Amino acid sequence: MKKKMIKSLITAFAIGLLAAFTIYLYVFHKPHRDVAGEKPAYKTTASKLIDEFTADETTAYNTYGNQVIQVTGEVAEISISSTNVSISLEDAMSGVSCGFDSLSIAKVGIHKLQEINEGDQVIIKGQCDGYDMIMGVVLTRCFLIK
Amino acid sequence: MKKIISLAIIAALCTTVAYTQKHITKEGVIEIFSETSLFTIEAKNMKVASVLNAENGELVASTLVRSFKFKEALVEEHFNENYMESHKFPKAVFKGKINNFSDFKIQKDGTYPIEVVGSLTLHGETRDILEKGELIVKNGNISGLLTFDVSLANYKIEVEENYKDRIKDAIKLSVHFDYKPL
Fold first, then answer.
1. Average pLDDT in chain B
2. Tell me, what's the ipTM?
3. How far apart are CA A68 and CA A98, in angstroms?
4. A57-112 pLDDT, tens per residue?
């Protein structure tokens, strides 16, 4: 009888510990959004996306804001450093500006990004942050598909 | 005669180039920092755009709130949903100028202390700011550095009572722009 009680006490304690640890992991080490692995909510072209944002920014933001979207477009400008790669599609100023941070650069591989030239057709997936008057539509945590 | 006309045209073009020269960055960086004994908040935004008019010192900078990337994913979620409400207010914009800009001879390499004055719009609230920073000129390229505190209450960003000991009212912003001539 006593043995049983001790056994269940230990089990309860172990479960409690596990729960506490899970909560701790969730709060402090919840993984960041994995754009590379996430299925895009929308697939579109860069020019269509720009048109939608310039026609009605609020509606477009409510649709695409914080969503992972996949865009196809022509590279208008590319700037590369080891911690920050930026690719503008269709237009250097008011096109789709795709940001790769060090995490996404590591996932894609810097050499693949270095091979990209202006005028190339690319497919990029990223989190849509909205529309900026200087940068155009901004995607971050980007992943190069093609 | 033809020579004089073409020379005049070239001279006119040169002056317009020199005087309407704008400097731009689309890879500006803003870092957020807040530290209490219980909690450290760190975030970095590498998608900040800015245009500096080298004729009169007019300055515009803008970014999207969602482009701030935090160390902890959960903090990033709270920042967007509870504090900045980025679904309602997706942008942060500064419009203003560098004071006494004409006093600078920015063609000359060097570090110049500056005073930036203008209006900052965050969380749908616009406030006047006046902050000190510096401009660094090197080989015709201009960099701008600015570090200042933003009071959350001032922009009606509410911190829940039980989080007040973890999050300071004044959040430190460090701004770094490396401009290129447009």
1. 87
2. 0.83
3. 12
4. 999 999 999 999 999 999 999 999 888 999 999 999 889 999 999 889 999 999 99
Whether residue A135 lies within 8 A of chain B, CB to CB, comes out as yes
Q: How confident is the model at residue B7 (pLDDT cuts 50, 70, 90)?
A: low
Show which residues on chain B lie within 8 Å of chain A, measured between beta carbons.
24, 26-27, 46-47, 49-51, 60, 62-67, 69, 72-74, 76, 80, 86-87, 90-91
Contacts of B46 in chain A (CB under 8 A): 83-84, 99, 101
Which 3-state string (H, E, C) describes chain A? CHHHHHHHHHHHHHHHHHHHHHHHHHHHHCCCCCCCCCCCCEEEEHHHHHHHHHHCHHHHHHHHCCCEEEEEEEEEEEEECCCCEEEEECCCCCCEEEEECHHHHHHHCHHHHHCCCCCCEEEEEEEEEEEECCCEEEEEEEEECC
Choose which CATH entry (3.40.50.300, 3.10.50.40, 3.40.50.11720, 2.40.50.140) describes domain A42-144: 2.40.50.140
Task: Find the mean pLDDT for residues B98-113.
Answer: 82
Place of tokens 């914080």: A66
pLDDT band at A28 (very low <50, low <70, confident <90, very high): low
Mutate to test the interface with A, among B24, B25, B26, B31 (most CBs of A within 10 A): B26
DSSP code for B163: G
Check CB contact of A134 with chain B, cutoff 8 Å.
Answer: yes
Contact (CB<8Å) B63/A130: no
* pLDDT, tens digit (0-9, with 9 covering 90-100), for A121-138: 999 999 999 999 999 999
Per-residue pLDDT, B5: 55
pLDDT at position B168 over 60? yes
| Superfamily name with CATH number, domain B21-181 | Lipid/polyisoprenoid-binding, YceI-like (2.40.128.110)
